[in-house]
């Protein structure tokens, strides 16, 4: 009996030990699994900290540069933007473009060709002489010095004349017999007197009116001659009314006002002379009377006129 009890106890112990071993193994497996998940979470947290907030500055700059290069490759090369530097001449042309256009029209030359020539002169002469808007064509006197003209438009006219002398083929033929209104001719006189500023605009208007019947004598208008200028062949004919009126105002400036002859009687003494009762040379009383009457008419008018106003009445070349 004793022997059987011992055998049963041993078997029971074995079974109990086996159960304990199984429980221990199960617990260890569960613990191992729990520890593995914790380690993974910890590792993920650690990696997260290293990759995002703790990245060093050099690496960050390299990364940004790489991304920028990648974007540039994907988007293609950027188009280079070239900004041209404005020069004194560019500003000059912008400011006086209408004057350039109208004066080129007066002389029958293409204003775009003329502007190209101004750019050439600027490139050739700027480093030596700088820029003077009153002598945009860099015209030199006999001493090799830059001429100092009275104003911008005066210097512009001087250079247009020189440009035509150098490039006679650039001047187009524009022979037009004027049949338009007197007001356009009067405005031409007003505008050209802003070039030859020594000429009294009302005297110029009045002499022209006295000579051409207030700018209505057809023969004179067709000849482009409103001041009665004569040559051996008779009345001087100009190609067009614009160049004819300009020639008239320039004549007054150079032969009269520029020499101090600036009164109606003084001008008439040479312009339209007569003989008094004593046989002395004087300004024709009849001519002086006509001019004085016209003066009363023009003194009441506004003489302000611009190239822009004149361009509205013309077809620019």
């Amino acid at each position: 009996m004793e022997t059987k009890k011992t055998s049963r106890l041993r078997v029971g112990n074995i079974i109990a030990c086996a159960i304990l071993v199984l429980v221990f193994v199960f617990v260890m497996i569960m613990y191992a699994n729990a520890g593995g998940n914790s380690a993974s979470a910890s590792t993920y947290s650690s990696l997260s900290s290293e990759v995002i907030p703790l990245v060093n500055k050099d690496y960050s700059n390299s990364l940004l540069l790489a991304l920028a290069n990648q974007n540039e490759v994907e988007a293609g090369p950027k188009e280079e933007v070239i900004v041209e530097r404005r020069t004194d001449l560019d500003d000059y042309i912008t400011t006086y473009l209408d004057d350039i256009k109208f004066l080129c029209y007066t002389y029958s030359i293409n204003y775009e060709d003329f502007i190209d020539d101004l750019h050439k002169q600027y490139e050739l002469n700027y480093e030596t002489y700088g820029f003077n808007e009153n002598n945009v064509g860099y015209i030199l006197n006999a001493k090799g010095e830059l001429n100092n003209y009275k104003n911008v438009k005066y210097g512009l006219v001087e250079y247009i004349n020189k440009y035509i002398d150098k490039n006679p083929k650039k001047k187009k033929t524009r022979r037009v017999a004027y049949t338009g209104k007197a007001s356009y001719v009067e405005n031409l006189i007003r505008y050209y007197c802003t070039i030859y500023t020594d000429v009294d605009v009302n005297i110029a208007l009045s002499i022209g009116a006295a000579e051409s019947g207030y700018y209505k004598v057809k023969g004179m208008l067709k000849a482009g001659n409103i001041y009665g200028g004569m040559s051996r062949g008779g009345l001087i004919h100009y190609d067009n009314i614009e160049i004819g009126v300009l020639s008239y105002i320039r004549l007054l400036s150079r032969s009269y006002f520029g020499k101090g002859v600036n009164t109606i009687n003084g001008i008439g003494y040479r312009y339209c002379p007569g003989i008094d009762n004593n046989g002395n040379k004087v300004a024709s009383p009849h001519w002086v009377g006509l001019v004085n009457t016209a003066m009363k008419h023009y003194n009441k008018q506004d003489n302000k006129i611009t190239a822009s106003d004149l361009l509205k009445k013309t077809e620019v070349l």
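The two ends are 143 Å apart (CA to CA). Strands lie at 230-231, 234-235, 273-275, 281-283.
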